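Dear colleagues,

As part of the handover before I leave the project, I'm documenting each prediction I ran so the next person doesn't have to rerun anything. This entry is a single chain, and its sequence is reproduced below.
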Amino acid sequence: MSDLPRGADHRAEDTAAVNALRSAVMRLSRRLKHQRVDESLSPTEMSVLGTLFRCGSATPGELARKEHVQPPSMTRIVALLEAKGLVRLEPHPEDRRQKVVSQTETAEAMLEESRRRRNAWLAELAQGLDEDEWEKLRAAAPVLEKLAHL
């Protein structure tokens, strides 16, 4: 019996590929977390900062939807980030009842250093790949990116 969704015509090798992908992504993710610049931030706080970097300023409700958390949870996360000087809240330009969350220069610098450190770690790790593996990695990267945002 397959662990993949019903109705899909999946072969045994598809199931094996999904299992290998899950395992590899989880293992790489755990190892990448050790390359963080600021250990005082939770993975969720880092994710919110990354979303602000990629998508720009947003309301707490928009951030909650993008991060797949409940709005009250996002309100607490934003308050923690604001207390740490990593985001600022400003009035919404069209709806004064709402606030818009933006990252600060401190957050931008921290994210840039975190990316630099993680990229350097991955680049060093990838030195062990041969050219064929590099070609496969370059081809797989957009697919993995798409999966990450579905």
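The chain has a mean pLDDT of 88. The first strand starts at residue 87 and ends at 91.

All the best with the project,
I.
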